């Protein structure tokens, strides 16, 4: 796959993945097309050598793997991890607000959202709806309005003279998006609007009643190449759907000779403590069923690459980085190091990545947070602690992390893909 094709396919993936459920659905479509077989956790598994498989939990987390040609207890497993969720505004269970003829919905902040960029954006709405169909069955359906349906207007500067110097956002009162105008006696519910949309999108399903939902607003502007030379990618959810896509393409395009695995967990942005999060049992359960009694030996010979975007140096805020560790966009993926174990990188895992990168003639960089600042984290330390597997934290540099729209470089994603594809077929990983 060439550089330009890779980036165009990445943009397509970002645009069709407004929520974790849509992202997993998009990934499973590609896995199906490549001949991977879906596994059901409720059933017995019969795994064949040299075959690809995948498992989905909660519709929002995925583990896909190639069994390879050898016993994983002897060959080890080349693992790549990412997360499917991004900071956003999620709809509350009883969201309807009617104020001065405006129909609004209450929202809850999910994760560490950079709130100010959400104002004055064309927003759409998507997620999972659990409903009752005409046959009395409870079903999960994905919904996506796929067009601008909401807006969070800023307060005019004439009414807030300190807006440019001292503006704060009240998550309860300032964020409910405006969705439409309604008459004074209006009793429209969001559930009714969801049923209408589901019937448009899935006319073959007789949706009778909405029983629950998990919905989030998202920026309706599609992902795009930007810059005079189109050297940047601008999009929502680059953190961390970009890494999900890189991991997926690496797994699909590897030789398949070695045992290799991709895990994409939900709930990283809120701590990963869930049945399908990195602190939960999902990955361990899959490995137990794949490797059986050889799981411990397999893990001891394995390595995990936790791929999650890194803080690229911002030209307007260069003092926010350590002077020797300011990653530059389009200068290579970033090995992330933190000796307080906010990242799981050690000298051995970093050395293997650098060796593969050097063998391919590709660049890489290193990030260490300033010693006087706090450090974020990833699924890397959680997975390393749960499994006891050697782990590397790496990611492409980006700007605007946790904003409604973020920016990365066009070359870095393809570089990381090339290295991870090679890693997934490397002879010895540990």
From TrEMBL:
Its cofactor is Zn(2+). Keywords: Aminopeptidase, Hydrolase, Metal-binding, Metalloprotease, Protease, Zinc. GO terms for molecular function: aminopeptidase activity; metallopeptidase activity; zinc ion binding. Pfam families: Peptidase_M18. GO terms for cellular component: cytoplasm. The keyword Zinc applies. The keyword Transcription does not apply. Its EC number is 3.4.11.-. GO terms for biological process: proteolysis. Belongs to the peptidase M18 family. PANTHER family: ASPARTYL AMINOPEPTIDASE. This is M18 family aminopeptidase.
């Amino acid at each position: 796959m060439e550089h330009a094709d890779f980036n165009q396919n990445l943009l397509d993936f970002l645009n069709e993945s407004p929520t974790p459920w849509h992202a997993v659905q998009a990934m499973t479509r590609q896995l199906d097309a490549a001949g991977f077989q879906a596994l059901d956790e409720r059933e017995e598994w019969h795994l064949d050598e040299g075959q690809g498989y995948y498992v989905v939990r909660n519709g929002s987390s995925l583990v896909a793997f190639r069994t390879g040609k050898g016993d994983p207890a002897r060959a080890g497993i080349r693992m790549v991890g990412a997360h499917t969720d991004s900071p956003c505004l999620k709809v509350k269970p009883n969201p309807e607000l009617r104020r001065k003829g405006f129909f609004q919905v209450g929202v809850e902040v999910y994760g560490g959202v950079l709130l100010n960029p959400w104002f004055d954006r064309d927003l759409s709405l998507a997620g999972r709806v659990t409903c009752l169909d005409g046959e009395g069955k409870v079903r999960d359906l994905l919904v996506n309005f796929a067009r601008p349906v909401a807006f969070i207007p800023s307060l005019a500067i004439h009414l807030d003279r300190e807006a440019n110097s001292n503006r704060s956002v009240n998550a309860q009162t300032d964020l409910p998006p405006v969705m439409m105008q309604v008459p004074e006696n209006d009793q429209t519910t969001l559930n009714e609007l969801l049923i209408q949309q589901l019937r448009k999108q899935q006319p073959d399903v007789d949706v009778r009643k909405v029983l629950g939902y998990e919905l989030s607003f998202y920026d309706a502007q599609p992902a795009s190449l930007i810059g005079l030379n189109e050297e940047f990618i601008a999009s929502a959810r680059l953190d961390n759907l970009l890494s999900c896509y890189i991991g997926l393409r690496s797994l699909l395009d590897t030789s398949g000779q070695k045992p290799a695995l991709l895990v994409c967990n939900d709930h990283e942005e809120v701590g990963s403590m869930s049945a399908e999060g990195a602190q939960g049992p999902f990955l361990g359960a899959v490995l137990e069923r794949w490797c059986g009694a050889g799981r411990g030996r397999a893990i001891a010979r394995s390595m995990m690459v936790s791929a999650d975007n890194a803080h690229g140096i911002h030209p307007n805020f260069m003092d926010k980085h350590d002077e020797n560790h300011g990653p530059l966009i389009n200068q290579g993926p970033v090995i992330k190091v933190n000796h307080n174990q906010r990242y799981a990188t050690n000298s051995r895992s970093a050395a293997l990545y650098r060796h593969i990168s050097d063998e391919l003639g590709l660049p890489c960089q290193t990030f260490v947070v300033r010693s006087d600042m706090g450090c974020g984290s990833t699924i890397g330390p959680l997975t390393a602690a749960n499994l006891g597997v050697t782990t590397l934290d790496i990611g492409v540099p980006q700007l605007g992390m946790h904003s409604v729209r973020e920016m990365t470089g066009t070359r870095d994603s393809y570089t990381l893909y090339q290295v991870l594809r090679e890693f997934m077929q490397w002879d010895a990983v540990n």
